[in-house]
């Protein structure tokens, strides 16, 4: 069973719904979820919030967090996941924010740095990754990491 199939199976079995907030993955997480037939039973929608303005206006990310930590940060990833969950009325929200490259990196935030987050109304998880490879490799690894984190969250959620 693929990761999107496994996630879908668990969401269906638990009667839960999911929504996405993506930046560096550009819609890949939503695409992976909707590759599974019947995903309309549990996938409510997603936002590709590439710009900081979109993160604020569409997901409710705090401008202070963006100024203090930058868009590629744990705080912003958590707020994006919460925003997707709340805006869509989903049980679970997942998010990705990072630097897919090949440019845009720095010593502090290198190409391949990605934060993925998952949240329910009761708990949230966030993981920091530094992936290597070409841009599409980083996007795919990030999307897989987001789906895996959602599975971890569902395994530990009430």
Describe this structure in words.
This protein has 158 residues and is of the alpha/beta class. The protein has a single domain (3-156), classed as Maf protein, CATH 3.90.950.20. The chain is built from six helices and five strands; from the N terminus they run αβαβαααβββα. The chain has helices at 3-14, 28-33, 52-59, 63-69, 74-88, 135-156, and strands at residues 18-22, 43-48, 92-98, 113-119, 124-130. A five-stranded mixed β-sheet has the order 2-1-3-4-5, with helices on both faces. Strand 1 (18-22), helix 2 (28-33) and strand 2 form a beta-alpha-beta unit. Helix 1 packs parallel to helix 6. The model has no long low-confidence stretch (mean pLDDT 97).
Which fold name fills CATH's third level, the topology? Maf protein
Overall geometry = globular
The major sheet is characterized as: 5 strands, mixed
Termini Cα gap: 24 Å
User: How are the strands ordered across the major sheet?
Assistant: 2-1-3-4-5
Structural class: alpha/beta
Please state the average pLDDT score.
97
Rounded to the nearest angstrom, the radius of gyration is: 14 Å
> Quick one: CATH superfamily?
CinA-like
Structural domain count: 1
The appropriate CATH architecture is Alpha-Beta Complex
Kindly state the percentage of residues in helix: 40-55%
Explain the layout of strands and helices:
Blueprint: H1 3-14, E1 18-22, H2 28-33, E2 43-48, H3 52-59, H4 63-69, H5 74-88, E3 92-98, E4 113-119, E5 124-130, H6 135-156
Helix pairs in contact: 1-6
Give a brief description:
The longest helix is centred in the C-terminal third of the chain and has 22 residues, at 135-156. It contains 6 helices and 5 strands; from the N terminus they run αβαβαααβββα. It is globular.
């Amino acid at each position: 069973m693929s990761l999107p199939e496994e996630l879908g199976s668990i969401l269906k079995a638990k009667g839960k719904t999911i929504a996405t907030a993506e930046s560096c993955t550009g819609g890949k997480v939503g695409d992976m979820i909707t590759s599974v037939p019947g995903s309309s039973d549990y996938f409510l929608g997603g936002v590709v919030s590439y710009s900081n303005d979109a993160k604020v206006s569409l997901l409710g990310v705090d401008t202070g967090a963006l100024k203090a930590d930058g868009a590629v940060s744990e705080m912003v990833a958590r707020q994006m996941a919460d925003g997707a969950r709340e805006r869509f009325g989903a049980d679970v929200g997942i998010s990705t924010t990072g630097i897919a490259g090949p440019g845009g990196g720095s010593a502090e935030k290198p190409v391949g740095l990605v934060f993925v987050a998952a949240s329910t109304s009761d708990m949230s998880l966030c993981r920091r990754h530094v992936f290597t490879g070409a841009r599409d490799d980083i996007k795919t690894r990030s999307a897989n990491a987001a789906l895996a984190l959602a599975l971890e969250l569902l395994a530990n959620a009430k």
